[in-house]
């Protein structure tokens, strides 16, 4: 069976994504067994960082969606932490809580890439849902107008993922800095925090690469049909 070079790249990106997901889980599990010297829960760490930035109005809630469901809701102005992070006092718990607060800080300072991601979200959401059907249907029916619309919509979804990368890395940078500056981790614990945050960032890199390769493949297919 002959594989197109782009198929090989897509499979490679998929493999990287699967590896990155396993890396996130293994790193979280490993460092969740290491209690931070500050003996603060994820919720307490989040509150301290928020208060240090004057974000007293931002609430901290349990997400109720299981492990690694942590996120910041900009509409509700709420940091939502999974149970292991909310109550946990481990390096993993502190790292994840601080990362989500990093997004709250971005929101409060009108961080440009976060604002751009918010603007792109509606188009990206529509694109990610409709584009595959338009692309596949257009190719099967040899309807290039459908393929073109599908490529435009899928491009919006890919752009959203590209913008997400600096947003996530910036939130992790802020998280590590705040944990150090507020004295909530020691110099010996910085390495563990970095491993937890870097593993999570890899998942975004892998998914973005896969999306970019898929977009290039569809563009090449469309050009070959003309």
Automatic annotation (TrEMBL):
**Keyword Mitochondrion (UniProt):** no
Q: Which one of the record's GO molecular function terms can you name?
A: peptidase activity
Cite the entry's keywords alphabetically: Hydrolase, Membrane, Protease, Transmembrane, Transmembrane helix
Q: Which residues form the signal peptide?
A: none
| Transmembrane segment boundaries | 120-141, 146-167, 196-216
UniProt-listed InterPro entries: Zn_peptidase_2
Is-annotated flag, keyword Transmembrane?
A: yes
Q: Name one GO biological process term.
A: proteolysis
Q: Which PANTHER family match?
A: MEMBRANE PROTEASE YUGP-RELATED (PTHR36434)
Q: What is this protein called?
A: Zn-dependent membrane protease YugP
């Amino acid at each position: 069976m002959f594989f197109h070079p782009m198929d090989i790249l897509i499979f490679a990106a998929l493999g990287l994504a699967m590896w990155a997901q396993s890396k996130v889980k293994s790193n979280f599990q490993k460092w969740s067994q290491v209690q931070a010297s500050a003996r603060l829960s994820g919720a307490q760490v989040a509150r301290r960082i928020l208060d240090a930035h004057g974000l007293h109005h931002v609430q901290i809630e349990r997400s109720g969606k299981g492990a690694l469901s942590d996120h910041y809701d900009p509409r509700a102005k709420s940091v939502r932490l999974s149970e292991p992070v909310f109550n946990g006092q481990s390096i993993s718990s502190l790292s994840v809580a601080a990362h989500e607060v990093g997004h709250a800080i971005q929101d409060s300072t009108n961080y440009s890439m976060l604002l751009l991601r918010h603007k792109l979200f509606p188009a990206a959401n529509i694109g990610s849902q409709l584009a595959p059907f338009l692309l596949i249907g257009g190719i099967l029916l040899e309807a290039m107008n459908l393929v073109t619309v599908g490529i435009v919509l899928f491009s919006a979804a890919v752009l959203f993922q590209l913008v997400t990368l600096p947003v996530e890395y910036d939130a992790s940078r802020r998280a590590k800095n705040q944990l150090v500056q507020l004295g909530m981790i020691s110099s010996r614990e910085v390495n563990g925090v970095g491993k937890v945050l870097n593993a999570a960032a890899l998942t975004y890199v892998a998914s973005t690469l896969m999306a970019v390769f898929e977009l290039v493949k569809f563009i090449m297919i469309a050009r070959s049909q003309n």
